[in-house]
From TrEMBL:
Residues 245-376 form the Oxidoreductase molybdopterin-binding domain. InterPro entries: Di-haem_cyt_TM, Mopterin_OxRdtase_euk, OxRdtase_Mopterin-bd_dom, OxRdtase_Mopterin-bd_sf. The chain crosses the membrane at residues 21-45, 65-87, 108-126, 146-169. It comes from the Bacteria. Keywords: Membrane, Transmembrane, Transmembrane helix. SUPFAM superfamilies: Oxidoreductase molybdopterin-binding domain, Transmembrane di-heme cytochromes. Gene3D superfamilies: Oxidoreductase, molybdopterin-binding domain. This is Molybdopterin-dependent oxidoreductase. The lineage of its organism: Bacteria, Bacillati, Actinomycetota, Actinomycetes, Kitasatosporales.
Length: 377
């Protein structure tokens, strides 16, 4: 019984339950915010069929806020997770490694939690760089793993509830005059807090305009790009050439189909709206868009009021060449087939001759180089 292999022994109080709780509750909060906003983003991009027509179009900045929080909480979770792992890693050397079936299951659930949390943050971070060095589809796997991570997080919290409760408050000094929450722990927590603050302040400007000047680490600077707006996929990358665009027509397919040239579109009533492009990768920027209301174009085609619309781009082969507007978006007075941005005709990279812009919508669905609107029954 007395045998113990020569494993390291840890005496530092920074590895105790109080530190694990202080770091863990911040990490848990970040993970929960990240999870909820991630689920919002998933269902806005891929709604269940009953929800397609009723997705909320207000507030217009809703998705911008939600996705800004998603990416910010994910980034904040990186230093928190590293600190948490450092705090508890001595437990890897506990002896005996397994004390009971329950203990074995608990260790297994923690392995699942750590693995899924690390992989979530890693894939999410690389997505913000638009770098996909793996063979699986990012979005589906990121979504599925999120449930694994949150499920094992909740299980972990339930198992540890007594320890967490006992360590939640700053321990009071006992009879001996020791500072039980001493300077070591305060320095450690302050350092982790500073790391979280630093990575947040240097990235959150990608979606939070006033902090744009501090946006040093995020892959996108919201001000960099033609017409003051970043570009995710350039016209060149999408294979859009002057040739393709030269005989451009908008085709509206519905009960009364028709075609319009660009100058005919420009002679229809024009509307303006200030709406953000809110990219799922975290950057957001408002633009002043002008163009024709989708609603007006659909009415002219004789579309019923609850019609869904398939939006088709000139772009072939990409993942984003086709999108769908449910009825709530299609009828919204702010949903435009935009022809200009900031008073200038759209640049090629922003979707010339025409793109979709709709309120409270993931950027990935704001289809560029639109050539056809199809009324779906
Ligand atoms: N046809 C097409 N439309 C597209 C894309 C695309 O790759 N192809 N990218 C989308 C994405 S991911 C975003 S965030 C916005 C970016 O818009 P911007 O380049 O005008 O800023 O356009 C969207 N529309
Ligand atoms: Mo995007």
């Amino acid at each position: 019984m007395g045998f113990r292999p020569p494993l390291p022994v840890f005496r530092g109080r920074l590895h105790d339950a109080r530190t694990a709780t202080v770091i863990g509750r911040a990490l848990g909060a970040a993970m929960l915010v990240c999870f909820v906003t991630g689920v919002v983003s998933h269902y806005l991009q891929q709604p269940p069929s009953w929800a397609v027509g009723v997705l909320p179009t207000r507030p217009v900045w809703g998705y911008r806020l939600s996705q800004g929080l998603h990416v910010a909480s994910g980034i904040a979770a990186v230093p928190l997770l590293l600190a948490k792992l450092w705090t508890v890693y001595p437990r890897l050397f506990g002896w005996p490694p397994v004390r009971s079936v329950a203990h074995a299951l608990e260790r297994l659930s923690i392995a699942v939690l750590v693995a899924s949390a690390l992989l979530e943050l890693f894939t999410g971070l690389l997505d913000t760089e638009q770098w996909y060095p793996w063979p699986f589809p990012f979005r589906q796997v990121h979504f599925a793993l999120a449930w694994v991570a949150v499920g094992s997080l909740l299980l972990h919290i339930a198992v540890k509830a007594p320890v967490i409760a006992a360590s939640w408050w700053r321990p009071r000094s006992g009879p001996e005059p020791v500072d039980v929450d001493g300077p070591d722990r305060r320095s450690f927590v302050a350092a982790v807090g500073a790391a979280v603050g630093a990575v947040t302040l240097t990235t959150v400007g990608q979606s939070l305009g006033p902090l744009g000047g501090l946006d040093l680490l995020a892959p996108r600077q919201p001000d960099h790009g033609p017409q003051g707006l970043p570009v995710n996929r350039t016209a060149a990358a999408a294979g859009i050439t002057a040739d393709l665009v030269s005989d451009w027509r908008l085709r509206v397919v519905g009960p009364r189909p028709y075609e319009l040239t660009l100058s005919e579109l420009r002679s229809l009533p024009q509307r303006s709206a200030v709406l953000p492009i809110a990219c799922v990768e975290g950057w957001s920027k408002n633009g002043q868009w002008t163009g024709v209301r989708i609603r007006d174009l659909l009415d002219r085609a004789g579309a019923p009021p609850n019609a869904r619309v398939r939006v088709v781009s000139l772009e072939r082969g990409g993942n984003y060449g086709v999108s769908e507007l449910g009825a709530s978006y299609a009828r919204d007075p702010l949903t435009l087939l935009a022809l200009s941005l900031g008073g200038q005709p759209l640049s090629y990279d922003h979707g010339f001759p025409a793109r979709i812009i709709a309120p409270n919508r993931p950027g990935v669905l704001q289809t560029k180089w639109v050539t056809r609107l199809e009324v779906m029954s």
